[in-house]
Amino acid sequence: MSDTLSDDASGGDDGQEDVMTPAELIGKLEEAWLNEKFSPELLENKSEMGECVMEQLTHMEANLQRVRRGDVKASVHRMEIDRIRFVLSSYLRSRLQKIEKFFPHVLEKEKSRVEGDPSFLSPEEFAFAKEYLANTETYLKAVALKHMPPNLQTVDMLKAVPEPCLDSFVFLRVRERQENILVEPETDDQREYVVDLDVDSQHLMRYRAIAPLVSSGAVQLI
Amino acid sequence: MFCEKAIEIIRELHRMGDGQLPAFNEDGIRQVLEEMKALYEQNQSDVNEAKSEGKSELIPTIKFRHCCLLRNQRCIAAYLYDRLLRIRTLRWEYGSVLPTNIRFHMCAEELEWFNQYKKSLATFMRSLGGEEGLDITQDMKPPKSLYIEVRCLKDHGEFEIDDGTIILLKKNSQHFLPRWKCEQLIRQGVLEHIMS
User: Fold this and answer.
1) What is the fold of A165-222?
2) CB-nearest partner of B77 from A86, A88, A155
């Protein structure tokens, strides 16, 4: 998969990143895509990566225009473009779905973020979430809430919309060895339940226990 | 009994199963709101009485009514919100123009919400990547092959594919088209994917 891409668009990625070949870029996209698809909560945004991939796609499309019609190579590349576009769309889609599902919590998290910390939302996603919240609130108000008794005219969205369930289980593959991961953090037993994770081993664990490892890239959700 | 109407409208929605949108139950909502109004007024007068005449035996009743009020509010919010989620799914299925029979089942405010949602989504998709943006409502399934065989289920008129060729989509005609061009038409029920 990566072969066709790299000889198609070599030198197309003079972005802000130090050096990253298109193949590495697509690898990163696939990682981010799987993590986002399987984690219960919204992960950090990687909008820069998304932009790079978009750039690649446009670049590849442009290259395709130059190829003679009916060339076999062209259809292979076309397929490649389709695949990458699917992964990118699916990635952005699952992010958007989580934003819609958990919008009050997502916005709350964004509000409490310390200045300088990386944001979980891209500016566009942030705008979308804000509009979604405002739109939904206006709607509820217009249809029902304003007809209710004065003390019941507001709904606390934070309480009304369910939070992401961090205790759900996820499958993961380990990329960097980890020691002493607490599986059951607060049990009444005296002994904490601790495991070591070996490279390339696969596990089924609660998301909460390994959430920091997902964002640092030490484990990959599968 | 209080709150029964509220449960009823939720049941009605629940019975429809996934993704289907029943007609907006304006009457049901109105009845629940009326019940709430009655409960609230009774509570108001009882609160005044309890305060002025020190009748503490009224307090449990007041509390009970207040619980009913909260429950009604919650049920209505749940009903409306669940409908919104269904409407949202419709945007992803049918594209930005909804079929008339579905619009018929929505109330004016829901249409308004839908239009706003449509706009937010469009703004978001336009902002992705280059000048044209990226339509993420396309490519819903991983691509297996570049071209697929499709059959027309209804007359759709002329349809242009990428290289500029124009084909006529006539009922019962079959075509071999780029998959990503027909995805939406398939979802709208204009084309049918022929599996061999």
Assistant:
1) Ribosomal Protein L9; domain 1 (3.40.5)
2) A155
CA distance B145 to chain A (A): 7
Is the pLDDT confidence value at A51 over 70? Answer: yes
Beta bridge partners of A204: A171
Q: Which of B29, B119, B128 sits opposite A92 (nearest CB)?
A: B128
Q: B106 and B163, same structural domain?
A: no
Say whether A160 and B110 touch across the interface (CB within 8 A). no
Q: How many CB pairs under 8 A join A and B?
A: 111
Q: Where are the domains of chain A?
A: 1-163, 165-222
Q: Specify if B140 maps to a domain.
A: no
CATH of residue B51: 1.20.58.1030
Judged by CB atoms closer than 8 Å, whether chains meet at B80 and A55 is answered as no
Contact yes or no for B179 and A136 at CB 8 A: no
Q: What is the pLDDT of residues B38-72, one digit of tens each?
A: 888 888 888 888 888 877 788 888 889 889 988 98
Across the interface, do B136 and A93 touch by the CB < 8 Å criterion? yes
Whole-number average pLDDT of chain A? 80
Bridge partner residues of B175 (DSSP): B150
Query: How many structural domains does chain B have?
Result: 2
Domain A1-163 -> CATH class: mainly alpha
Give the tens place of pLDDT for each residue, A161-171.
888 888 888 89
> Which chain A residues are closer than 8 Å to B119 by Cβ?
131
